Amino acid sequence: MNAAAQLIPDIKKGLEGVIADSTSVSHVDGEVGRLYYRGYTVESLSRYRFADIAYLIVFGELPDQTQQSQFESFLQQAGAIPEGTAALISQLARTTAHPMEILQGIAPLLTAEQLDKTPGRTAEESEGLVVAARLPAVVGLILATRQGRKFEYSTAPRYGQRFLQMLTGRQSNSAAIDGFEQTQILQLDHSFNASTFTARVVTSTLAPTACALSAALGALYGPLHGRADQAALEMAEEVASPANAQRYVSNCIASKKLVMGMGHREYRVVDPRAKIIKQLAEKAVLAKEHRLLFDTLIEVEKEFVAQTSARTRALRANLEFYKGIVYLSLGIPKDYFTASFAAARVFGWLAHIVEQRKDNRIIRPSAYYTGPAPREA
Predict the structure, then answer these.
(1) Which one in 59, 156, 242, 316 has a CA-CA gap of 20 to 30 Å to 11?
(2) What's the rounded Cα separation, in Å, for the pair 162 and 78?
(3) CATH: 3.40.1280.10, 1.10.580.10, 3.40.50.620, 1.10.730.10. Which one for 26-222+334-358?
(4) Which of 132, 116, 124, 126 is nearest to 208 (CA)?
(5) DSSP type of residue 29
(6) What distances in angstroms separate CA 16 from CA 265, 298, 299, 322, one per listed residue?
(7) Please, are residues 330 and 223 in contact by the beta-carbon 8 Å criterion?
(8) Cα distance from N-terminal residue to C-terminal residue, the chain
(9) CB 25 within 8 A of CB 355
(10) String of DSSP letters for 61-76
(11) C-alpha dist (Å) from residue 319 to 7, 35, 229
(12) What pLDDT was estimated at residue 200?
């Protein structure tokens, strides 16, 4: 190796393996396939309501009965969108913009007309909680406008009940509400994923909380991150039948084509969230057209595991792989999968924003320059 080559630093593309900071919000133990929220395994939290675990993520402990009631009430009251902002969202919904693009653009404006009282411990945290409370109504308003139906803000007492009612325009049964809230719980936080790190980078500049959330929404929209749920379902539609799975997987491996929802950088074994969401999918998928898609996903996963088992580790399904079929069975259109995901992950982003502000240092990594040597113009 020559002297010039020896000077090249060890560059970690994608910051893989780099410990950029500490966090107490969630922990991914990829070696054994565990995910913890504030010390609790996600499996142990599945019996709780979504609002309880959102509270845990933001405030660090599970709520007592009074805190639970107050937080759910706050989300219901704060979730209504101010009239002027609602009119603007309706205008944007009449464009061809993806719902995620609208969410990113509108997020900094969702703090207008905040409530006098919020559970937030600081002004920045209160601002973030208002944005989080209003995202379900924004998603519902966009869809209602595009479907040509009148949007009505739901005052149902439970988060999942309100969200589904605003999104679908109809009442959902308790099984659907429970399944939706369990799905949302699985998406609350996942350590320093791309969108969360984006939120922390923007926060480190001391930008407003809503701007950090807007940036995180932009990162989540990418198909290598949050939009993988929509892409995985569209893949199943393309494959069309379990009988086509073997050929499809073989072609993908031969051409080095990514299949969204398969594999995960953090997990060396099965993503624990994937186990839970697959079980939810088995319960939720009842309609014949959805059953075919579900069976196709199962066969694609089976083939990927079989055809990649000779590698260091077999590629297995992650959370995004089966999540789309659960959302579809609940009446959520494909274009609204990632927006529904965002409405849960926003609580995780906020927890990281609060954490970043407590011991802030602007995030500014170095770069190894590979351009021309110094020269004169």
Answers:
(1) 316
(2) 13
(3) 1.10.580.10
(4) 124
(5) E
(6) 9, 30, 31, 26
(7) no
(8) 33
(9) yes
(10) S---HHHHHHHHHHHH
(11) 41, 12, 8
(12) 98
d(CA 66, CA 372): 64
- How far apart, in whole angstroms, are the C-alpha atoms of residue 345 and residue 154? 21
Beta bridge partners of 40: 37
Buried b / exposed e along 39-54 (16+ C-beta atoms within 10 A): eeebeebbebbbbbbb
pLDDT of residue 325: 92
Collect the ranges in the chain with pLDDT lower than 70.
1-6, 114, 264-269, 286-288, 310-315
Within 8 A by CB and 6+ apart from 351, the residues are: 25, 57, 58, 189
Active site residues per annotation: 264, 320
> Are 109 and 230 spatial neighbours (Cβ–Cβ below 8 Å)?
no
Where are any strands of DSSP class E within the chain? 26-29, 34-37, 40-41
Quick one: which of 328, 277, 280, 232 has its CA closest to 35?
277
- Go through the chain and tell me how many residues it has: 377
Q: What is the pLDDT of residue 2?
A: 46
Are 26-222+334-358 and 228-329 equal in CATH topology? no
- Contact, 337 vs 229, CB < 8 A? yes
Number of H helices, E strands in the chain: 16, 3
- CA–CA separation, 103 vs 85, rounded Å? 12
Cα gap 337→61, rounded to integer Å: 29
Q: Are 336 and 136 in contact (CB under 8 A)?
A: no
| pLDDT for 3 | 45
DSSP summary character for residue 108: G
Strand order in the sheet with 34-37: 26-29, 34-37, 40-41
Residue 62 CB contacts under 8 Å (≥ 6 apart), including other chains: 48, 52, 53, 55, 56
State how far the Cα of 261 lies from the Cα of 234, in Å rounded to an integer: 11
pTM (2 d.p.): 0.92
CATH superfamily of 228-329: Cytochrome P450-Terp, domain 2 (1.10.230.10)
Delimit the domains of the chain by residue range: 26-222+334-358, 228-329
